[in-house]
Amino acid sequence: MAESPCRLYLITPPRIDDLAAFGHVLAHALDAGDVAALQIRLKDQPDEVVAAAVDALAPIAQSRGVAVILNDRPDLAAKLGCDGVHIGQDDAPYAEARRLVGKDRIVGVTCHDSRHLAMEAAEAGADYVAFGAFYPTTTKDPKTRADPEILTIWQETMEVPCVAIGGITVENARELARAGADFLAVSAGVWSHGEGPAAAVRALNAEIAKGVAERP
Protein backbone atom coordinates (compact mmCIF):
# COMPACT_ATOMS: atom_id res chain seq x y z
CA MET A 1 0.00 0.00 0.00
CA ALA A 2 2.93 2.37 0.57
CA GLU A 3 4.31 4.42 -2.30
CA SER A 4 4.37 8.07 -1.25
CA PRO A 5 4.84 9.44 2.29
CA CYS A 6 1.07 9.94 2.68
CA ARG A 7 -1.79 8.56 0.62
CA LEU A 8 -5.57 8.68 0.57
CA TYR A 9 -7.61 5.78 2.00
CA LEU A 10 -11.32 5.96 1.14
CA ILE A 11 -14.10 4.54 3.30
CA THR A 12 -17.50 3.85 1.76
CA PRO A 13 -20.62 5.62 3.03
CA PRO A 14 -22.30 3.65 5.86
CA ARG A 15 -25.20 2.75 3.52
CA ILE A 16 -25.18 2.20 -0.23
CA ASP A 17 -28.71 1.95 -1.58
CA ASP A 18 -27.83 1.75 -5.29
CA LEU A 19 -24.64 -0.23 -5.87
CA ALA A 20 -24.57 0.36 -9.62
CA ALA A 21 -24.87 4.13 -9.25
CA PHE A 22 -22.31 4.21 -6.45
CA GLY A 23 -19.95 2.10 -8.57
CA HIS A 24 -19.92 4.84 -11.22
CA VAL A 25 -19.26 7.50 -8.59
CA LEU A 26 -16.48 5.38 -7.07
CA ALA A 27 -14.82 4.82 -10.45
CA HIS A 28 -14.77 8.57 -11.17
CA ALA A 29 -13.37 9.26 -7.68
CA LEU A 30 -10.59 6.67 -8.05
CA ASP A 31 -9.69 8.00 -11.49
CA ALA A 32 -9.38 11.54 -10.12
CA GLY A 33 -6.17 11.01 -8.14
CA ASP A 34 -4.04 8.71 -6.03
CA VAL A 35 -5.98 6.40 -3.71
CA ALA A 36 -4.23 3.59 -1.83
CA ALA A 37 -7.19 1.68 -0.42
CA LEU A 38 -10.96 1.44 -0.24
CA GLN A 39 -12.53 0.23 2.98
CA ILE A 40 -15.99 -1.28 2.51
CA ARG A 41 -17.68 -0.31 5.76
CA LEU A 42 -21.35 -1.26 6.00
CA LYS A 43 -22.04 -1.52 9.72
CA ASP A 44 -24.86 -3.75 10.94
CA GLN A 45 -25.77 -4.91 7.44
CA PRO A 46 -26.52 -8.59 6.71
CA ASP A 47 -23.79 -10.70 5.15
CA GLU A 48 -25.51 -10.85 1.78
CA VAL A 49 -25.59 -7.02 1.58
CA VAL A 50 -21.88 -6.85 2.40
CA ALA A 51 -21.12 -9.61 -0.12
CA ALA A 52 -23.09 -7.81 -2.85
CA ALA A 53 -21.16 -4.60 -2.14
CA VAL A 54 -17.81 -6.39 -2.33
CA ASP A 55 -18.85 -8.13 -5.57
CA ALA A 56 -19.82 -4.80 -7.14
CA LEU A 57 -17.08 -2.54 -5.80
CA ALA A 58 -13.96 -4.69 -5.40
CA PRO A 59 -13.36 -5.12 -9.17
CA ILE A 60 -13.64 -1.35 -9.67
CA ALA A 61 -11.01 -0.70 -7.00
CA GLN A 62 -8.69 -3.65 -7.64
CA SER A 63 -8.55 -3.00 -11.40
CA ARG A 64 -7.09 0.41 -10.50
CA GLY A 65 -4.51 -0.97 -8.08
CA VAL A 66 -6.56 0.09 -5.04
CA ALA A 67 -6.53 -2.37 -2.11
CA VAL A 68 -9.98 -3.46 -0.88
CA ILE A 69 -10.27 -3.67 2.90
CA LEU A 70 -13.41 -5.02 4.57
CA ASN A 71 -14.44 -3.53 7.90
CA ASP A 72 -14.87 -5.78 10.95
CA ARG A 73 -15.26 -9.16 9.25
CA PRO A 74 -12.08 -11.17 8.69
CA ASP A 75 -14.14 -14.27 7.85
CA LEU A 76 -15.98 -12.49 5.04
CA ALA A 77 -12.83 -10.66 3.88
CA ALA A 78 -11.15 -14.02 3.25
CA LYS A 79 -14.23 -15.62 1.71
CA LEU A 80 -14.97 -12.71 -0.63
CA GLY A 81 -11.41 -12.20 -1.85
CA CYS A 82 -10.75 -8.82 -0.24
CA ASP A 83 -7.16 -7.61 0.13
CA GLY A 84 -7.52 -7.27 3.87
CA VAL A 85 -9.60 -6.43 6.91
CA HIS A 86 -9.83 -3.51 9.34
CA ILE A 87 -10.69 -4.44 12.92
CA GLY A 88 -11.72 -2.28 15.86
CA GLN A 89 -10.91 -2.87 19.51
CA ASP A 90 -14.36 -4.46 19.96
CA ASP A 91 -14.10 -6.77 16.94
CA ALA A 92 -12.21 -10.04 16.49
CA PRO A 93 -8.81 -9.95 18.22
CA TYR A 94 -5.79 -9.45 15.94
CA ALA A 95 -4.60 -13.08 16.21
CA GLU A 96 -8.04 -14.37 15.22
CA ALA A 97 -8.28 -11.93 12.30
CA ARG A 98 -4.82 -12.93 11.07
CA ARG A 99 -5.69 -16.63 11.32
CA LEU A 100 -8.84 -16.09 9.25
CA VAL A 101 -7.35 -13.93 6.49
CA GLY A 102 -3.91 -15.56 6.30
CA LYS A 103 -0.45 -14.07 6.28
CA ASP A 104 -0.64 -12.40 2.86
CA ARG A 105 -3.65 -10.13 3.45
CA ILE A 106 -3.64 -6.75 5.17
CA VAL A 107 -4.83 -6.49 8.77
CA GLY A 108 -5.30 -2.98 10.14
CA VAL A 109 -6.26 -2.17 13.72
CA THR A 110 -8.12 0.78 15.25
CA CYS A 111 -6.10 2.16 18.17
CA HIS A 112 -8.12 5.31 19.00
CA ASP A 113 -5.77 7.77 20.72
CA SER A 114 -3.58 5.11 22.36
CA ARG A 115 0.08 4.58 21.49
CA HIS A 116 -0.01 1.60 23.86
CA LEU A 117 -2.75 -0.15 21.85
CA ALA A 118 -0.92 0.74 18.64
CA MET A 119 2.38 -0.71 19.88
CA GLU A 120 0.63 -3.92 20.92
CA ALA A 121 -0.97 -4.19 17.47
CA ALA A 122 2.30 -3.42 15.68
CA GLU A 123 4.23 -5.96 17.74
CA ALA A 124 1.55 -8.59 17.03
CA GLY A 125 2.06 -8.04 13.30
CA ALA A 126 -0.58 -5.53 12.19
CA ASP A 127 0.05 -4.03 8.76
CA TYR A 128 -1.12 -0.61 9.90
CA VAL A 129 -2.54 1.09 12.98
CA ALA A 130 -5.32 3.69 12.84
CA PHE A 131 -5.52 6.69 15.17
CA GLY A 132 -8.55 8.97 15.62
CA ALA A 133 -10.92 10.60 15.60
CA PHE A 134 -9.00 13.83 14.98
CA TYR A 135 -12.03 16.00 14.24
CA PRO A 136 -15.78 15.78 14.82
CA THR A 137 -17.34 13.23 12.47
CA THR A 138 -20.89 12.50 11.36
CA THR A 139 -20.05 8.98 10.13
CA LYS A 140 -19.83 7.50 13.60
CA ASP A 141 -19.79 8.58 17.22
CA PRO A 142 -16.07 8.58 18.04
CA LYS A 143 -14.99 7.20 21.40
CA THR A 144 -11.84 9.28 21.50
CA ARG A 145 -10.28 12.45 20.17
CA ALA A 146 -6.67 12.16 19.07
CA ASP A 147 -4.09 14.92 18.79
CA PRO A 148 -2.09 15.16 15.55
CA GLU A 149 1.06 14.95 17.67
CA ILE A 150 0.42 11.20 18.10
CA LEU A 151 1.15 10.79 14.38
CA THR A 152 4.46 12.63 14.67
CA ILE A 153 5.59 10.58 17.65
CA TRP A 154 4.57 7.35 15.96
CA GLN A 155 6.33 8.27 12.73
CA GLU A 156 9.54 9.05 14.61
CA THR A 157 9.60 5.83 16.62
CA MET A 158 7.83 3.06 14.68
CA GLU A 159 8.06 1.46 11.23
CA VAL A 160 4.45 0.24 10.97
CA PRO A 161 2.35 2.71 8.93
CA CYS A 162 -0.28 4.84 10.67
CA VAL A 163 -3.68 5.83 9.34
CA ALA A 164 -5.44 9.00 10.52
CA ILE A 165 -9.22 8.64 10.67
CA GLY A 166 -12.21 10.64 11.83
CA GLY A 167 -13.70 13.85 10.46
CA ILE A 168 -11.01 14.37 7.81
CA THR A 169 -11.88 16.83 5.02
CA VAL A 170 -10.10 18.86 2.36
CA GLU A 171 -9.87 21.68 4.92
CA ASN A 172 -7.92 19.76 7.57
CA ALA A 173 -6.07 17.06 5.58
CA ARG A 174 -2.90 19.12 5.23
CA GLU A 175 -2.38 19.31 9.00
CA LEU A 176 -2.49 15.52 9.39
CA ALA A 177 -0.24 14.89 6.39
CA ARG A 178 2.23 17.37 7.86
CA ALA A 179 2.01 15.69 11.27
CA GLY A 180 3.15 12.36 9.83
CA ALA A 181 0.16 10.23 8.79
CA ASP A 182 0.99 7.57 6.22
CA PHE A 183 -2.65 7.39 5.13
CA LEU A 184 -5.67 9.66 5.56
CA ALA A 185 -8.93 7.71 5.85
CA VAL A 186 -11.82 9.79 4.52
CA SER A 187 -15.52 9.00 4.15
CA ALA A 188 -18.03 11.90 4.30
CA GLY A 189 -15.24 14.34 3.37
CA VAL A 190 -15.27 12.73 -0.09
CA TRP A 191 -18.84 11.50 -0.65
CA SER A 192 -20.50 14.65 0.73
CA HIS A 193 -18.08 17.13 -0.84
CA GLY A 194 -19.89 20.08 -2.41
CA GLU A 195 -18.25 19.65 -5.82
CA GLY A 196 -18.52 15.87 -5.84
CA PRO A 197 -16.26 12.97 -4.86
CA ALA A 198 -13.84 13.26 -7.81
CA ALA A 199 -13.19 16.92 -6.98
CA ALA A 200 -12.67 15.93 -3.34
CA VAL A 201 -10.06 13.30 -4.28
CA ARG A 202 -8.17 15.85 -6.41
CA ALA A 203 -8.29 18.46 -3.65
CA LEU A 204 -7.30 15.99 -0.92
CA ASN A 205 -4.29 14.83 -2.92
CA ALA A 206 -3.23 18.45 -3.41
CA GLU A 207 -3.53 19.18 0.33
CA ILE A 208 -1.68 15.95 1.23
CA ALA A 209 1.21 16.96 -1.05
CA LYS A 210 1.39 20.37 0.62
CA GLY A 211 1.37 18.82 4.07
CA VAL A 212 4.13 16.33 3.23
CA ALA A 213 6.24 19.15 1.75
CA GLU A 214 5.92 21.04 5.05
CA ARG A 215 7.15 18.17 7.22
CA PRO A 216 10.18 19.14 9.29
Distance between the termini: 24 Å
* Mean pLDDT across every amino acid position: 96
Number of helices: 9
The profile of the biggest β sheet is: 8 strands, parallel, barrel
Radius of gyration, CA atoms, in whole angstroms: 16 Å
Tell me the number of strands.
Answer: 8
Which overall shape is indicated by the principal axes computed on the Cα atoms? Answer: globular
Order of SSEs = EHEHEHEHEHEHEHEHH
**Helicity level, as a percent range?**
40-55%
Counting helices, strands and paired strands, the structural category is alpha/beta
* Low-pLDDT regions: none
Portion of residues in beta strands equals: 15-25%
Biggest sheet, spatial arrangement of strands: 1-2-3-4-5-6-7-8
Topology summary:
Layout: E1 7-11, H1 19-31, E2 37-40, H2 47-62, E3 67-71, H3 74-79, E4 84-87, H4 94-101, E5 106-110, H5 115-124, E6 128-132, H6 149-157, E7 162-165, H7 173-179, E8 183-186, H8 188-191, H9 197-213
Parallel strand pairs: 1-2, 1-8, 2-3, 3-4, 4-5, 5-6, 6-7, 7-8
Helix pairs in contact: 1-2, 1-9, 7-9
What does this structure look like?
- This protein is an alpha/beta fold and 216 residues long.
- The protein contains nine helices and eight strands.
- The protein has helices at residues 19-31, 47-62, 74-79, 94-101, 115-124, 149-157, 173-179, 188-191, 197-213, and strands at 7-11, 37-40, 67-71, 84-87, 106-110, 128-132, 162-165, 183-186.
- The protein has an eight-stranded parallel barrel with strand order 1-2-3-4-5-6-7-8, surrounded by six helices.
- Helix 5 links the parallel strand 5 (106-110) and strand 6 (128-132).
- Helix 1 packs parallel to helix 2 (47-62).
- The longest helix is centred in the C-terminal third of the chain and has 17 residues, at 197-213.
- It is globular and about 45 Å long.
- It starts with 6 loop residues before the first strand and ends with a helix.
- The mean pLDDT is 96.
